[in-house]
Amino acid sequence: MKKILLITGDFAEDYETMVPFQMLEMVGYEVHAVCPDKKQGDTIKTAIHDFEGDQTYTEKPGHLFALNYNFNAVQEADYEGLVIVGGRAPEYLRLNQRVLEITRYFAENNKPLAAVCHGIQILTAADVVRGKKLTAYPAVAPEVTLAGGEYVSVPVTDVVVDGHLVTSPAWPAHPKWIAAFLKVLGAEISL
Questions:
Q1: In what order do the strands lie in the sheet with 165-168?
Q2: Distance from the CA of 141 to the CA of which of 31, 120, 122, 131 falls in 20 to 30 A?
Q3: Per-residue pLDDT tens for 147-158?
Q4: What are the residues whose beta carbons fall under 8 Å from the beta carbon of 140, sequence distance 6 or more?
């Protein structure tokens, strides 16, 4: 079975963690959900971000999400692709050198890499957006530009694909974002 690595952490966005995890498993991938300093069976707390007409998203408590693999056991070459979720977790996960090494491996080897919302902060910290077109939650746009990427402003329901890199602004883009990631993975789904 082909494997996907999903990096998440405490206060990651709930939908951006659970939905890709479940959808990728649904179509036949083995998804390893990991977080630095946590092991298989540990949980993370998620947060639900919603768009209710305020100047930015609102935040509410989410769920406990059980990790199903040990972060320290990750061997990048074992995976077909990488998913980096959004929410508040990326702001501290980008400080972890191993997270950045993993991200660079996928970028440097042109392996499918999907990031959503604030997950793009890990891409910028890993210095893998230079010369790439991508999107993110709008508040992350300055980081994309400063890191040498070309920020593309798209509706919150849209996706931007540049080669092996698949990005979206937030969870409302899941249908397009995950479909685009599956296409980059070369997945064939027959129902």
A1: 30-34, 3-7, 81-84, 113-116, 165-168, 160-162
A2: 31
A3: 999 999 999 999
A4: 117, 118, 120, 121, 124
Helix residue ranges per DSSP H, 38-185? 89-93, 97-108, 120-125, 141-146, 174-185
The alpha carbon torsion through 60, 66, 69, 74 (nearest 10 deg) reads 10
Distance CA 39, CA 168 (A): 28
- Mean pLDDT of all residues belonging to the chain: 96
This model's pTM is above 0.90: yes
The label of the residue with tokens 């971000």 reads 49
Banded model confidence at residue 58, pLDDT cuts 50, 70, 90: confident
Q: Which residues are catalytic?
A: 117-118
pLDDT value, residue 156: 94
Is 32's pLDDT higher than 80? yes
Sign of torsion, CA 66 183 163 13? negative
Residues 6+ apart with CB under 8 A from 37: 71
